[in-house]
């Protein structure tokens, strides 16, 4: 079986969020099961700057964008320490910039994003043809690849290379749909007859993700709960009825994590390694973290967040209760970047409570590892969460998660309940309703529980023992690929 896996971001090359983690990891696990898989992504300026060992192939593709012919040059590399080939599409005009989708350090999108990903969709398919891959499956991810299924089912349908190709679309976050003005249809080269409310149109605009959902053979998303949630108006972001229509082709496959990168026993980015049998290193990591973030090195519960600063992540609940939170004996560290209003708020908190609050407003991989290792509690009160990765990293690092029970958080975190000792499955604290009083009550409960060191260590070890590796997810994807191959 041959699979072409298309993603606009892949670690370690380019990342803005969880999609990159998965796209850089799941192909490895899929290949381990004997499936031939290649990855295709854009060659962004930051990838060139970082001097990854890539070779320029002699493959070149021409894509018509409106009236203009654009050229893409194909480079080849590998996912680090693997035999998984990654093909990079180079077009300096589209990708020779620092940001992936927006101007660096802002939330302002590039004005030509639709053109950049219209190009990507077609250039990827043309590269697959020239590479003579003959894929059984083209696996698309998120809105940036949303037009790929449309091309495959229309203008590219009769091409020999794709005669037996089936299409899977994975939704990593329905909140980002790639919605552009209708005249961009002229750039796609697709027939205007497709611009109707059952296919590419969404309230007068061109919607890439909707297009992908409508034209794919199977749709997956990254947890079973989120697969159900997105069929409701509350979580459907306007596409609930489109998804409901495809309900029998819609599956939830929970993400896993790459334990070669996220494992406190081997992590090279943390000051001391540790595991569930010997937790001593975690204390050293905590001291080092407090020191780095200029907080007093005290035995006090250390609560952390690592997150894009956007309303999705439940920051409004935290802001609502911040003053109350500061009355509790705890320290709080936030690593994040995103919307300016949150930058300002959290900067102000850090100034107002210098011995309790530390904030780093940046995207910083090393700090993310240090925080996972050094914190006691990880806070993730998301309004919605397709899967969430940080709660899984936290489990492995013995950093007990407090989450709201939505999407993948509901599928991975089991609340401690009301008993004095954690039951075997309990791995964190969970509250249901999106409500700041509930968040506060749950934090208070966790801090109280933290006082009993023996019970707390049990809870940590429960989480550390759990297996959230990607192998399980890979097997589920492969089972669906097979079903597709057999005509579902
Ligand atoms: P989402 O994809 O919605 O942002 P996930 O939990 O699925 O949320 O994945 C987020 C990923 O991005 C995690 O690997 C997390 O560690 C990382 N991340 C988020 N913000 C930062 C940051 N400021 N610095 C470093 N890593 C970050």
Describe this structure in words.
- Synthesizes alpha-1,4-glucan chains using ADP-glucose.
- GO terms for molecular function: alpha-1,4-glucan glucosyltransferase (ADP-glucose donor) activity; alpha-1,4-glucan glucosyltransferase (UDP-glucose donor) activity.
- Keywords: Glycogen biosynthesis, Glycosyltransferase, Transferase.
- Pathway: Glycan biosynthesis; glycogen biosynthesis.
- It catalyses: [(1->4)-alpha-D-glucosyl](n) + ADP-alpha-D-glucose = [(1->4)-alpha-D-glucosyl](n+1) + ADP + H(+).
- The chain is an alpha/beta fold and 488 residues long.
- It has 2 domains: 2-256 and 471-485, 3-Layer(aba) Sandwich (Rossmann fold), CATH 3.40.50; 280-468, Rossmann fold (3-Layer(aba) Sandwich).
- The protein is 36% helix and 20% strand.
- The strands form 3 sheets. A 9-stranded mixed beta sheet has the order 3-4-5-2-1-6-7-11-12, with helices on both faces. The protein has a 6-stranded parallel beta sheet with strand order 15-14-13-16-17-18, sandwiched between helices.
- β6, α5 (147-153) and β7 (166-171) form a beta-alpha-beta unit.
- α1 (18-32) packs across α19, α5 (147-153) crosses α7 and α10 packs across α14.
- The longest helix is centred in the N-terminal third of the chain and has 18 residues, at 113-130.
- The protein is globular.
- The mean pLDDT is 96.
């Amino acid at each position: 079986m041959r699979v072409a896996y298309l993603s606009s971001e892949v670690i370690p090359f380019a990342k803005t969020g969880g999609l990159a983690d998965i796209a850089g990891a799941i192909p490895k696990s899929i290949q381990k099961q004997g499936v031939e898989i290649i990855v295709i992504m854009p060659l962004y300026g930051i990838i060139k700057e970082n001097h990854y060992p890539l070779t320029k192939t002699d493959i070149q593709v021409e894509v018509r964008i409106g009236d203009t012919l654009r050229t893409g040059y194909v480079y080849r590399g590998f996912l680090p320490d693997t035999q998984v080939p990654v093909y990079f599409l180079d077009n300096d005009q589209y990708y020779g910039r620092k940001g992936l989708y927006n101007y660096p350090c802002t939330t302002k999108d590039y004005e030509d994003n639709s053109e950049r990903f219209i190009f990507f969709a077609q250039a990827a398919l043309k590269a697959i043809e020239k590479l003579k891959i003959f894929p059984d499956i083209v696996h698309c991810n998120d809105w940036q690849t949303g037009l790929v299924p449309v091309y495959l089912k229309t203008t590219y349908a009769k091409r020999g290379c794709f005669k037996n190709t089936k299409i899977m679309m994975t939704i990593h976050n329905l909140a980002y749909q790639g919605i552009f003005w209708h005249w961009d249809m002229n750039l796609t080269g697709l027939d205007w007859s497709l611009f109707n409310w059952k296919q590419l149109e969404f309230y007068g605009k061109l919607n890439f993700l909707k297009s992908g959902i409508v034209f794919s053979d199977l749709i997956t998303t990254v947890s079973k709960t989120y697969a159900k949630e997105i069929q409701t108006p509350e979580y459907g972001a306007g596409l609930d009825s489109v998804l409901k229509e495809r309900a029998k082709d819609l599956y939830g496959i929970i993400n896993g994590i790459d334990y070669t990168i996220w494992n406190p026993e081997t992590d090279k980015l943390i000051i001391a390694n540790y595991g569930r049998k010997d937790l001593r290193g975690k204390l050293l990591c905590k001291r080092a973290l407090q020191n780095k973030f200029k907080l007093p090195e005290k035995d006090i519960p250390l609560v952390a967040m690592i997150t894009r600063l956007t309303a999705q992540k439940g920051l409004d609940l935290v802001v609502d209760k911040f003053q109350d939170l500061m009355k509790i004996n705890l320290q709080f560290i936030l690593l994040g970047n995103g919307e300016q209003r949150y930058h300002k708020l959290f900067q102000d908190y850090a100034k107002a409570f210098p011995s309790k609050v530390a904030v780093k407003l940046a995207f910083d991989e090393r700090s993310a590892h240090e925080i996972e290792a050094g914190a006691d509690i990880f806070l993730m009160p998301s309004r919605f969460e397709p899967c969430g990765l940080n709660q899984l990293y936290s489990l492995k690092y013995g950093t007990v998660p407090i989450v709201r029970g939505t999407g993948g958080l509901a599928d991975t975190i089991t609340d401690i309940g009301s008993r004095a000792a954690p039951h075997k499955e309990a791995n964190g604290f969970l509250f249901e309703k999106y409500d700041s009083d509930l968040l506060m009550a749950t934090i208070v409960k966790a801090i109280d529980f933290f006082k009993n060191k023996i019970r707390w260590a049990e809870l940590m070890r429960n989480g550390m023992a759990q297996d959230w590796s990607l192998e399980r997810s890979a097997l589920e994807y492969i089972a669906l690929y097979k079903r597709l191959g057999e005509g579902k």
